[in-house]
């Protein structure tokens, strides 16, 4: 296969949109302003400051709740075609339910949307980037089947207010992260450690809630406003450490990605057959009377199947897989608590690293992943909803991030031009520095730097912001030398 592109193929297709992404808890701050309710990350971070690097909180973060105009300004400066942000559920519904709508929260997103549209930037809304109202968590959160109805109610409220102006929607960001890490290893909020049913109940209910929102949108709103809706899956590309582990690698992919994709995107619907079988056999062996992976009814399979207008994927990294060896550290977090696979994930060789050593950089994984997804689910539109690189200290001269973006954009172009994959969007993670979950503020993903010492949380362009603007303006990987700023300080 071709691994580098002839220069005459360096242009991006006209229908591909460029933008940047963020998430509400990571940037907004204003955690209890103007009637907002508490979400599980507010609570988790306040209760377990020892788990967050530097003991910091998202109480202020980039202060986007007050400084969203600055976000719009920098998005416009980079000539972004869209900005993907998320809605903080209890900012709109402080109790979690529709008995009370917080007008200040409604106005916040409304102003942000209008601000973006005034600059010709399309708002793309993630409806859930992990900010569950605490009241709903107290009732079991994603383990409680009633959440399907409650999420549907929330969805209807926000469609009603924003669907006239928002044409691209993502129900969920990375269910694998909040189900498998939130309920299993418990390293993410809500910090539940229940490896038996937690992640799998969450998995099933998230799929049903997604389908519910999709159907509400298509039935009640799309006819009037048009628009598209899907979800953003995190896809960790898994490679066999040795060719003899190919089928294990495939099982790993079905476990990580298939469980959140097959029910929606495959022709037959339901769980990936290989995972259904594995979970059943392993559960019986463990002494359970049936599979820990909850069954779907016929009706549920049909309800979930086909409920996406494109495939949204967040790509960061690649891991290698091999069978577990006694004494293996269960440390590598991606498969924590998946003993049924009896496998270990390892970092790939030849990768380079940003600040976050959990995310080895392997640009080729993006192309392989896109090809795998097309093979699995057909020739649909793919939208890269996140891709990004972390740096450590205050540093505007982020040439490694420029390299990261260039390398991934090249792989994306190879998929488009060589493999004929339809890629319709690319979102850089992230617009500005933000609260990087357990990494606090030490891990920086922004194209714009945030000055956390300054009360205004001043936003300053990094070298990567200049590079990205060039790419967007030229719509080509072939950008003038001047786009790779040298000896960058700030201008
Ligand atoms: C994403 N992996 O999480 C999240 O969507 C963002 O909120 C976050 O800030 C960003 O990545 C950077 O960490 C990830 O398994 C979760 O490779 C898991 C993986 C990658 C990213």
TrEMBL record:
Identify the keywords attached in UniProt to this record, alphabetized.
Answer: Glycosidase, Hydrolase, Membrane, Signal, Transmembrane, Transmembrane helix
Q: Which residues form a coiled coil?
A: none
Matching entries from SUPFAM superfamilies are given as:
(Trans)glycosidases
Database matches in Pfam families: Glyco_hydro_1
Q: Which family does it belong to?
A: Belongs to the glycosyl hydrolase 1 family.
> What name does UniProt use for this protein?
Myrosinase 1
What gene is this protein a product of?
A: LOC112055805
